[in-house]
Amino acid sequence: MTANLTHLQRLEAESIHIMRGVAANFSKPVMLYSIGKDSSVLLHLAMKAFYPAKPPFPFLHVDTTWKFREMIEFRDRMAAELGFDLLVHINEEGVRDGINPFDHGSNVHTHIMKTVALRQALDKYGFDAAFGGARRDEEKSRAKERVFSFRTASHTWDPKNQRPEMWKIYNTRVAQGESIRVFPLSNWTELDIWQYILQEGIPIVPLYFAKKRPVVNRGGMTIMVDDDRMKLLPGETVEERMVRFRTLGCYPLTGAIDSCAATLEDIVSEMLTARTSERQGRLIDRDEAGSMEKKKREGYF
Amino acid sequence: MLSSNAAAAVADAETETADIRAYLSSQERKTLLRFLTCGSVDDGKSTLIGRLLYDTKLIFEDQLAALEQDSKKHGTNGGEIDFALLVDGLEAERQQGITIDVAYRFFATPKRKFIVADTPGHEQYTRNMATGASTADLAVVLVDARQGVLQQTRRHSIIASLLGIRYIVVAVNKIDLVDFDEQVFAKITADYDAFAKDLGFSSIVAIPMSARHGDNVTRISERTPWYAGPSLIEHLETVDVAGESVAQPFRFPVQYVNRPNLDFRGFAGTIASGSVAVGDEVVVAKSGRRTRVKRIVTYDGDLPSAFEGQAITVVLEDEVEVSRGEILVAPEARPDVADQFTANIVWFDEHPLLPGRMYILRTETDEVSATVSQLKHRVNINNFAHEAAKCLELNAVGVCNLSLQSPIAFDPFGKNRSTGSFILIDRVTNATVGAGMILHPLRRAANIHWQALDVTKESRATLKHQKPAVLWFTGLSGSGKSTVANLLEKKLHAAGRHTYILDGDNVRHGLNRDLGFTEEDRVENIRRVAEVARLMADAGLIVLVSFISPFRAERRMARDLMGEGEFIEVFVDTPFEECAKRDPKGLYARALKGELKNFTGIDSPYEAPENPDLHLHTVGRAPEDMADELETWLRERGYC
Predict the structure, then answer these.
(1) Pathway involvement (chain A)?
(2) What's the complex ipTM?
C-alpha cells in the first residue's frame, strides 16, 4: 500500500514520525535552525508534525556574527510570521577575542564560533536532544551516521561505536548530560529538498536565487562582499556578477556560483545538470582530509 | 510590446518551466527500492556500490577528483581508481581498508530510485549489518568467486531472512579472477541454493560479475557469454518486492498525544498497516475500549481516509483513555496483547544475553521492562542446528521466551514488521543490545491470575510496629557484609523488630544449590534471592540481604522489585587488597592460585554501586560502629 505514496510523501511521513518520537521521548529537545534551505524544510516539517499545535520545542540559531545580512533578516521575519520560539546564541568570548574568518582562518573561526558556541548553548539550556538538517547524501562521514546519533556528555561522536538502529525503533535513552543529535532529513537528497520546496512553496533566503551581487575572487572561490569588514587584498577588485549560492554559511567562507537561475524551476534544472556537489562551495570541508568527520566528532553538526 | 526575440525567450522559459514540472512529476511517481549489500570481508561490497554510483553518473566532478587523490593515498588497486573509497567515509575505514559501519547511498535510474546500505563484512560489526538490513527489502549477498560460500555469507543470509527480507541477489563477484569460469559460478549457485532452501526467500537470483571492471553490473558482459540472465541494475530496476502483499488490518501505533488546548485532543502516529476512514470503528488494543474516528487531521487539511505509511493525527468520537504505546486497531482483526511471548533474538553486545537479567524492551512506541525467562535454543550459523545454550554471545541468534512487567500489543513479525519487532536496551549503559522478532504469544500468561488478598503488607507491618525494608549489602567476598549484617540483626532483634538475614553462602546450600558461579548463574542467584526478599518484605519483615551481587543490573532489578523506599543499598566498601589479606575463608588464596574459577575481583568483575544509600568504608572501623550507624540511619527514617 505504501506504493500509493509519492516519493516526497514517503520522505515527509518519515521525517514527521522521527520528530514526533523525539517530542514524546525527550524532556528538553531543541531544533537547530541554520536559516539555510535544509533548515527551512525542517521548520516546515515541524509545523506539519504537530499541527494544530506549534512545535513543542524552541529553535536555536548559533550566530557566528559572520552570516549574510539577508540570512538574519530572513530568520527574524520567519520567527515573527510563524510564531516559533527562537533562541539566538553567540559565543561572546569569541567576539571579545575578535575571532574572525579572515585573520584566524576557517578552521579556528568555525571551531570557536560554531562548534564551541553550539556546545555552550546546549550546556546552557540543558537540551537532551537536538535536531539538525544534515543529509546522508551530503558527505561521506554523514552517509555513515544514524538518524539518532548519540553524543557523550562532552558532545563527542564515536563513529566506530554507534548504537545499532533497527527499523523505526529509536533508542532515545541517555544518561544525565548525554544527548542525541537527530537528523530527520537523513534520507533526503539535495534534489528532494528543492523539489519539496517547490511543491510546498516553502520560503527560502533570497541568496539562493541569482542576482547581481558584489563579489571578489579569492583562493579559487567567489566570495560576496557582504559588509565592510571584508578588506580587499592587493590586486583584488569587486565586480558585480550574476551569482547565487547552493549552500549558506558564513559569508567569507561560502563560495557563490555564476548562475542565471532566478526561480525555483531554474535552480532545479541547473541542479539536474550540475557536475559538482553542493559542498564544493564550502571552504571548511577541504581544509584537511577527513575534516568533516573530525569536526563532527568534536560536536559540529 | 515585446520584441519577437524577447517573446521567444519568454516562451522558451515557459516551456522550460513546464518541462521541469513534468520531469519532476515523473520522478515523483518512481518507486523506491531499499536494498543492502552484505557478505564476507573483501567480497567487494563497497566496490560494487562505488561502481553503481559511477556507472549511473552520480559522482560529481569534485568527488571524482577527491577519489582519484584518495586512491593514490589509500587505494588497494595500485593507483587505479578504488571505488570502495567512495563509500568508506570514516577515517579509520580508509586507513584500515575495511568497512566498519553501514553507509547509505542514494541513486536513481530512469526507472527507479534506490537507497542502498553498504554493510560491513567483519563478524565483529554484524550489528551494523543488521542495522542496514532492518530497513531493506532486498539483499545483494556478495560471494568472492575464489572463496565460495563462507560463514559470514551464511550468517548474513540468516539475519536477512530473520529480519524479513524475502528477495536475494547472489552476486558472484571477482568472476574475472577465475577466468570467467561457468563451472565456478554453477557450483557457488548450487551451494547457496542448497544452504538457503529453508530460509523462506521468495526469490534467489545469482549473477556472475566483476564490480571492479563493471561486468554484468550495469551492462551485460561479453566475457560471460554463458550467462543469459539480467545485469544487476536491470534486475534491481524490475524486481517486484511488494509481491503477494495482501491487505493487512488497520494498525495505528500512537506516538504522541497532541493536546494544544482543551478543545483538541489528537493522537499522532504513522499508520503501520491497513487503512482507516472517518466514521470507522476502532479499538484501543490494550484496554479493549471501542470508539469511532471523528477526524483525520493534517496540516494540509482534514482527510476522509488514510492508509499505510501516512503520518496523521486522529481525533476520536469519545473521551477514551489512549496513551503513547497504545495501538488503535480494526475491531475485527485485533493484535495480541500479552506479557509473555516467544521471539527470535539477534544479540549485539559484548556482554552476552543472560536469562533472568532485566532489560528495557522497546517497540516502535511502547517501552517496558523485560527478562528472557527461557533461552530455548541458539541457532548454529553453519547448519541451522538448534543448540542448547545458557547465554547468547555477541552476534549470536536464538529463540527465547520473554516475560514483560506489563503487557504490550503486538503482531507476529511475519505478519507485520512494524508491530512485531522490538529492541532490547541495557538498563545501565543504555546501549542497544539486541533486536527481536516476535513469533507468538505465550498463553500461560493469560491463565495465571493474581489472587487478591485482604491482609495487606501495611497491616502486617503495622502489627509489628515497623516499616518493611530490604537492606541489600553488596561488596567483595570478605569485605565484612555478613559480619555487619549479623551485628545489626542482633541489635534490631534486641529492640523487638522482626527481621531475617538472607546470606549468600547459606542460600546456596538450599534454594540455590543448583547454581554455580558463571555469569548466568550469578544473575539467576540474585533474581531468586530478590524475589524471596520481596515476599519477606511483603510479610512485613526487615530483611538483611548479604550477597556479593557484583552486577549493577541485578541490583537495579532487585530495587525495582521492591516498593518505593523499601530497598536500601548498603555498599560495604573494602579494597580488594584488604579482602585478600583478611581472607577469612581462605578463598582468595585458592582463587589466586587458579583453583577457583569466576572469583569476583579476580577473574569475574565487581561493579561498585554508583549511588548507594549507605556507603561503609570499612578500613580502620570496628564492625560494631558500622552496625550502630545503620541502626541510627534506620531509626531516623522511621523503619524501626
Answers:
(1) Sulfur metabolism; hydrogen sulfide biosynthesis; sulfite from sulfate: step 1/3
(2) 0.90
